[in-house]
Amino acid sequence: MAQNRLRATVTSCLLSGLLFAGLSHAASPIENLTVVVPYAPGGASDRAARIVSDGLHKKLGTPIVVENKTGAGGRIAAQYVKSTAADKNVLILANPAIMVVAPLVFNDIPYKPDSDFQAVSMVTEYGFGVAVSADSDIKTMDQLITWAKEHPGAFNIGVPATGSLPHFFGLMLSQQIGSKGEIIGYRGSAPVITDLIGGILPVAIDTLDVLTSQHQGKRIRILATSGSEREAALPDVPTLKQSSVELEASGWNAFFAPASMPADKVTQLGEAIKEVTSDPALQETLLKNELIPVSTNAEETRARIEQFRQQWAPVIQASGFKVTQ
C-alpha cells in the first residue's frame, strides 16, 4: 500500500511538472500595445489601423493606443518602431512604399525591412484602376490599347506621385500592352483627377479608393481594375485580365513588429489579428470604409510580401528611379 501511495505521489508530481512546464512555454498575456500609423489621421492606413485595433482590443482585452507618426513617406515611423526596446509591445501598420519600394529607390534609409522587422499580419489590400475622362471616346481597355499604339507621343499616364505604386504599376501596364506611356507624376491625387476630368490627361492610374467615387459620380470612367476579380463597388468594371491584359497587382497594409519582439509574441499577435480580421462584422466595417479585408498570420504574411517583392522589384529596378536625400 505504501509503495502504491508513493508511486501515485511521484506520478502526480511528474504530471504537475509537465503541466507547469507547458504553461511556462505558453505565450504571455499582452498587457498593452501601441500601434504606429505612418500617415495622418483619417486616411486609409489610419482607418484600417483603428478598426483592426478596436477588434483586437475586444478579443484580447489589451489596452491599445494608436499613434500617428508622420513624415518622410513613413520612414520616420519605421525608424521609431525599429528602435523600440524589447520590453515594449509596438507594431507599425506599413505598406509596400515603406517595406519594399523605399529600400530600392533611396540610397540610404534608416532601417532594413528584412532584418529590422518581423511580419505579423496583413489586414487590408487595395487595387488600382486605369481611368479616362467620362467625356473620352475611349470606353474599353481594347480601345485604349489601340489608341496608345496609334498615338505613342500622346500616351501620358497621370499618377499621384513620382515613385508611387501607381507610377510603377503604370510602367507594368505599358510593358504589358506593348506601348510605352509617359508617366506624369503629380503632387497628390486631386490634381490628377482635375486634369483627367478637364481633358489635359488622357489616362490616369490611382488606387481604387480615390477613383471609385469619381466613377460612380460619372466624372471619370474606370476602364479596368487590377485585382483578381471585379470589385463589389464596381460591378460594371472588368479586371485587366478580363480585358485580355495579363496583369494583376495590388497593394496592402500589414502589421510589422520590431526585430526585438520575441518570436512567440509575433506568432500570438499574428494569429489573434487573423482571427479578428476573419470576423464578418469587422470585414463589413472595413468594406464600408473602402478597405478590402485580408486575413493572414505571420507566416502567410511573409509569403505574400515575398510574392509582391518578386513581382514589383524588377520593374522598380529596371526603371532606374532613384531619390537622392
Automatic annotation (TrEMBL):
Similarity-based family: Belongs to the UPF0065 (bug) family.
InterPro entries per record: BUG (IPR005064), Bug_dom1 (IPR042100)
The organism of origin for this protein: Alcaligenes phenolicus
Coiled coil (residue ranges): none
Pfam families: TctC
Name of the molecule in the record: Tripartite tricarboxylate transporter substrate-binding protein
Signal peptide: 1-26
Keywords on record: Signal
